[in-house]
Amino acid sequence: METIEINQAAKILNVKQAMLDGSVFNDISFKNVKITNANMSDLEIEGAQLGGAYIHNIGMPPQGHPLFDPEKKQLPLRFEDCNLQGTHITNCNLSGSVFDDISFKNVKITNANMSGMEIEGAQLGGAYIHNIGMPPQGHLTHNPDAIQRPLRFEDCNLTGSTITDCNLSGVIIADCNIQGMKINGILVEDLLKVYASNLNVQQ
């Protein structure tokens, strides 16, 4: 395959139906470049400014595309040591993604399917978690027969947390420090004392 070198030149390239496998772009200005219908598997971008970049319709060729293969799976993407502050991710499939050693401060997640998600070793101080559950009536994916799988909280520090207007049916609290915990303004410790004294009376 022919090698073309462009050095210290100002050019506008209009490239179509070309194979550029193994190409290297170093110390260049790529502002306002548009790449469409491209196979960019194993692409590596390092030391680049991507502010304002618009990345959309990314993935394997969809059904109906000449290169569509229902058996082929996309290799996972990797982002390492990146500043993605203020990034918007909309209508994307992030199933099986791993976020490790990251800053998620002030992140907002809405209209997301987070079934099976695991959060471990995270600081959640000040987090606001609301409107959580199965898609409500009127939602496109609402299923009246669907039942949400139970959530699990293990070895978590929830000191001072507030739970309001939530469905806690069937919730089990075991081996927890409930000092100062209240339900509708009543100390749970006092409720348990009354329960224990009633048991003693019945016996």
Question: Can you describe what's shown?
Answer:
With 203 residues, the protein is low in regular secondary structure. It contains one helix and two strands. A two-stranded antiparallel ribbon has the order 1-2. The radius of gyration is 26 Å and the shape is elongated.
Radius of gyration: 26 Å
Structural class: little secondary structure
Strand order of the largest sheet: 1-2
Question: What's the helical proportion of residues?
Answer: under 10%
Mean pLDDT across the residues is 90
Following the backbone from N to C, one meets helices and strands in this order, namely EEH
Give the percentage of residues in beta strands.
under 5%
Count all strands and give the number: 2
Using brief descriptors, characterize the structure shown.
elongated; 2% strand; 203 residues; single chain
Please describe the topology of this protein.
Layout: E1 182-183, E2 186-187, H1 188-202
Antiparallel strand pairs: 1-2
Short structural description:
Helices cover 7% and strands 2% of the residues. The protein has 203 residues and is largely without helices or strands.
